[in-house]
Amino acid sequence: MKRKNLLKTTVYLLLALCLLLTACSSGTETPSTTAPDSTDSSAPAATAAPAEQEGTEEEATTTSQLVVSPAGVVQTSTTMTGAPQAEEQRLVYNNIESSSYDPIRNENMDELSSHMFEGLTCWTQGELTMGQAESIDVSEDGLTYTVTMRDDIYWSDGEPVTAYDFEWSWLRHLDPATAGKYTRMLYPIKNAQAYNAGECTADEVGLECPDERTLIITLEAPQLVFTEILAMREYMPVRQDIVETYGETWSLDPETCIGNGPFKMKELIPGEKIVYEKNPYYYDADQVILEEIECRFITDPSVELMSYEAGEIKIATQVSAESCLLHPDQSYIIQRLSSMWLVVDCEDDVLSDVRVRKALAMSFDRQAICDAVFKGAEQPSYTIIPNGMKDPITGEPWSAYGQYFEENVAEAQALLAEAGYPNGEGFPTLIFGTSTSTENEQVAQAITAMWKANLGINCEIKVEDSASFIAHRQEGAFDIARWTNTGGYNDPTNYLAYYESDQPNNDSHYSNPEYDALLHQANAEADIPTRMEMLHQLDEMLITDMAVIPLYNPAQKYLIDPSVVGAGVSPAGSLDFKRAYIAAE
Amino acid sequence: MVKYLMKRILMSLLTLFVLITVTFVMVRLVPGGPFDADIAEMTPEAYANLMARYGIDQPLPVQYKMYMQNLFKGDLGESLQYTGVEVAELIGRGLSATLSLTFIAVLVALIIGFGLGIAAALMPNTWVDRLCMAISTIGISLPNYVVAIGLMYLLALKLSLLPVTGLSSPAAYVMPVIALALNPIANLTKLVKTSLIDALNQDYVTMAKSKGLSQVKIVGIHAMKNALLPIVSYVAPMIANLLIGSFVVENMFTIPGIGTMLATSITNRDYTTLSGMIIFYGAGVLVFALLADLAYVFIDPRVKFED
Amino acid sequence: MANILEIEHLKTFFVTDQGVVKPVRDVSLTLGEGEVLGIVGESGSGKSVTMLSVMGLLARNGYVGQGRVTFDGQEIFNIQPEGEDVTIKQLKQEKKAYEAKMRKYRGKEVGMIFQDPMTYLNPILTIGYQMSEGLKAHFKMSKKECRERNLRILELAGITNPKRRLSQYPFQLSGGMRQRVMIAQAISSYPKLLIADEPTTALDVTIQAQILDLMQALKNKIGTSIILITHDLGVVASMCSRIIILYGGQIMEQGTSREIFYQSKHPYTEGLLQSVANYDEEADESKKLVPIEGTPPDLLKPPAGCAFVDRCKYAMKICKTHEPEMRQISPTHACKCFRCYPEVESLTKGGAAND
């Protein structure tokens, strides 16, 4: 009998031990509560080191412990800048895989494609530089771009890159039969949209190749930052003969995945990893130091963290704020061109009153939520345009222009009372939609809790998986729903354009003829300062009408091993390794 | 026997057909289509082009007819997620990763499961028995993601004995195999033990002993053959399940197997891949059920084929 | 004529959750060459356990506590514990030793047949396989040799179509056929001793006689000694030269067949004879069967006195407190009852009252 009890106790202890191990090793716990004032309860946070002292454009906020940097070189206080190079120049890191490496089909970060392909312009260590193009001339009216290509550009099999390659690639992308998802990016080009809709032929699209080194692009309307757009993956060239011979799977085989970028594909094991090697034909090959790059496809953040801590990968990209706090001197956080906000159904009975919407927007504490859920890596925002959006001429961040509202609970309560619902009396329950992820759910809970506390308004939170959520949101199943956007380039129009009346993605159902008119005007304006002024006005209009409730700007977090020097990150959050190397330890 | 086999195969095909049809309808009823995740970035023209390319803009019965026609020709279609890649190829790719892992996991599960079960049955109420039952209890109670994380933390991170992810070296198989095999081992141990003890208590075992046969012959042939029936009932679906691949284990260890493929095809609403996977699973389960039934007949001559 | 089997004062017990059960409390017997010995008793009398103990086929929790057994001149075990305190561990070791010894004899010099051929034959192995097992293990016979021997034995056992039977399974044979197979299997090694534990109990009456005849015939052909265990007096009547009556783990009476049937002294034997349908007497209309009232004793707490006292018509006060000794009535006839004591006999002969 005694022996039986001893065995039972041992088994229970073992079980408890296993559970304890799991709790300690998992790095993704976010047990933060909904009430914003309570202190953090996650164990790893208690051991966090104080914030790093890097010079940044952003102010380190008083309550946060993580510091955010702009796009540029990815380095931390421990990065061995200036150290000599190691013998073996092989970088192993981790990112999410894509179903295809054809730049027009890649549905994730374009990074995995942008190692292998390069457009007319490109991002190098956070700066926009000339890529395959030697020079670009813009006409006075901003409608014609004349591109002169470099004369030393080659594909990874030695074939020369010509302007015809670009022309063919973009037309192929717009071809309805190709069914490209992101053709929208090419619509600035004249007749691109018409061609994509099958309403005209390819010849009518605004592209011309007088010779193999010249490409003339005609636009529909002047663009704010077309040169940035040219760096995007939708504008990267692919080889006509390869695509036509091998079909849509050409990018999944190293033999046929021929690109013009700094690296080329060496090996691909879908679901496991991709390996790149240096492209000897790249025009800047002598500046590229890395010989090989391996990118693994670990999806689970805990596993990725373990892999990083074990030294198997040198850069981790699916990092949570807690993991950053665990390794503060190896974490790097950039504020991406990305924004998170809530769409509010302006056609709903109660929400059609602007006072109600304003009350909702002003009555919760964004900073508190960011601190609690994101440990300060994310920054609160009072507009839907990402703060990192820079003015093309002055270089100022968007928010420097002005903030159109402030959080003020008393005023919010007054507005609500004025609208006829003092203390939320008689206010129906709102349906709040969000998609599955611990953080999204926590944010939803925090916001709704604050609304309840401050305004007496009840909400029902509906959490659904991505595909369902998006479908339901478009159908109008939610009164309030989460919306996120990640733009690839510095043009606020991306965000503002959503809220033109009758736009399919206008899930706020906002309809303001003045807004629409000003938007069209801005799109046709060639003078950049004037255009920017109009865009700011549109922003003000949107916020004054509170058609949307801004939340925060998401950040991209990395853990980077000190031996990785010179890696760059673009404003969209893509890593580039053109100048990177491994330092000798 | 041939008649029986023919009948079974026919029934299996019918079952598969119903399975495919039900999946076809159900997966399209779920809110959210295969391209809706990017809908905010797609223009209506792009969206229309995409739907047209895969025939999803057609009415449901038309889509169904097209799908079934292709199926009869042996064409599972193209994946909606992986542009240009055939579903058959996707399954083949995933299968090769999963198979090497599950094959070893099955072997390990069988060897250890039988080993522990036989040991426990032959030495009841000793420390051997208690140890085997303890292992069994732990294996049943711990979910495999807990086991996976625990092993990874201990063996890969703290002790640096094994690589964290992937199947690049023989050492890399150790953790995923343990995570996969633990639960089957636990169940099998219990089953073998009870089944064998049951058989050993039978009169024919006394008879066999009275003939002076060796312990090996008595346990191995007389008892074991009789004990096999309930074990086969468990092992056949166990193998089928392991073959199906565990999403959790594959996801944790970054193994590009078919378990992951099934889960992602659901999240991505990749209809064609999902249907293809369901067919594959359905067929697998049915094949193993048939094999199990055939095994019964060979083990126990009292079981006859129904006419 | 040497004795094939000698058992001296065998005591066997089982360790159970409820305590220690003593099914065999003192059994001694001898079996000569060519003899047929019958062991009669009801269920719980210890008749099967006695033979299982001797054969080394006791369950895990069963141990021989005391006794000496010799088989064919060889001593198998001699367990004589000193005093009351003997550890299970020691007994375990002894058990292991003698079981190993007996294993060499089992299936070779000693054959056993059991009550229910359906459960004692392995249902999923062929007849041929099961018959050949012992031959291969003990005599290293080849497949061909086994087959020859099996066919011969099956013929001997009166089984029709022996070739076909070899590849059949037990469930494909009738009850009587199966029992013949079991017998055939047991004698295929031409054993010196055949132990038959209730061989006819599971069969219907018409087959019973056939089986018994078969056993007799085989005995004559091969010259085996037989121990026939049963609860049925009718079965032992025809075959056995000597009979032992067991009750409560002890021998109540033993003697030749004639002595037991016509000159029984023990009340239990008397009761048994009365409770069996009498073949020899003329069928009187409505002759009642007189069963013995009561149930066998609890072997967890065996009685201090005579085991039969609670059910005995003639029970005396002393029977409850003292155990009677075995008294020889004739060289072959012995009885364990106070009434057999000459002193008491004279009293009862006089028809005096029980005192």
What does this 3D model show about the protein?
Chain A is an alpha+beta fold and 585 residues long. Helix content of chain A is 28%, strand content 19%. Among the domains of chain A are: 102-108 and 116-248, Dipeptide-binding Protein, Domain 1 (Dipeptide-binding Protein, domain 1, Alpha-Beta Complex), CATH 3.90.76; 338-553, Dipeptide-binding Protein, domain 3 (Roll). In chain A, strands 15-19-14-18-16-17 form a six-stranded mixed β-sheet. Chain A has a four-stranded mixed β-sheet with strand order 2-11-10-9, with no helix packed on it. In chain A, a hairpin with a 2-residue loop joins strand 7 (207-211) and strand 8 (214-218). Chain B is mainly alpha-helical and 307 residues long. Chain B has helices at residues 2-29, 44-54, 60-72, 87-122, 127-141, 144-158, 170-200, 203-210, 215-244, 247-252, 258-267, 271-299. The model of chain B has no long low-confidence stretch (mean pLDDT 87). Chain C has 13 helices and twelve strands. Chain C has helices spanning 47-55, 88-105, 117-120, 127-139, 143-156, 162-166, 175-187, 205-222, 233-239, 257-262, 267-275, 317-321, 342-349; strands at residues 3-16, 19-32, 36-40, 62-71, 74-79, 110-113, 193-197, 225-230, 242-247, 250-256, 327-328, 334-335. Chain C has an eight-stranded mixed β-sheet with strand order 6-7-8-3-9-10-12-11, with helices on both faces. Chain C has a four-stranded antiparallel β-sheet with strand order 2-1-4-5. In chain C, helix 4 packs parallel to helix 7 and helix 7 runs parallel beside helix 8 (205-222). The radius of gyration of chain C is 22 Å and the shape is globular. Chains A and B meet through helix 1, helix 7 and helix 13 of A and helix 2, helix 4, helix 5, helix 6 and helix 11 of B.
What is the strand and helix layout of this fold?
The complex is a heterotrimer of chains A (585), B (307) and C (355).
Chain A: H1 2-25, E1 72-73, E2 90-94, H2 111-114, E3 121-124, E4 127-130, E5 133-138, E6 144-149, H3 163-174, H4 192-196, E7 207-211, E8 214-218, H5 226-229, H6 240-246, E9 263-269, E10 273-278, E11 292-296, H7 301-309, E12 315-316, H8 321-326, E13 331-335, E14 338-344, H9 354-362, H10 366-374, E15 379-380, H11 409-419, E16 430-435, H12 438-455, E17 459-464, H13 466-475, E18 480-486, H14 493-496, H15 513-524, H16 528-544, E19 548-553, E20 555-560, E21 564-565, E22 568-569, E23 575-576, E24 581-582
Parallel strand pairs in A: 2-11, 16-17, 16-18
Antiparallel strand pairs in A: 1-22, 3-4, 5-6, 6-8, 7-8, 9-10, 10-11, 12-20, 13-20, 14-18, 14-19, 15-19, 21-24, 22-23
Helix pairs in contact in A: 9-11, 15-16
Chain B: H1 2-29, H2 44-54, H3 60-72, H4 87-122, H5 127-141, H6 144-158, H7 170-200, H8 203-210, H9 215-244, H10 247-252, H11 258-267, H12 271-299
Chain C: E1 3-16, E2 19-32, E3 36-40, H1 47-55, E4 62-71, E5 74-79, H2 88-105, E6 110-113, H3 117-120, H4 127-139, H5 143-156, H6 162-166, H7 175-187, E7 193-197, H8 205-222, E8 225-230, H9 233-239, E9 242-247, E10 250-256, H10 257-262, H11 267-275, H12 317-321, E11 327-328, E12 334-335, H13 342-349
Parallel strand pairs in C: 3-8, 3-9, 6-7, 7-8
Antiparallel strand pairs in C: 1-2, 1-4, 4-5, 9-10, 10-12, 11-12
Helix pairs in contact in C: 4-5, 4-7, 5-7, 7-8
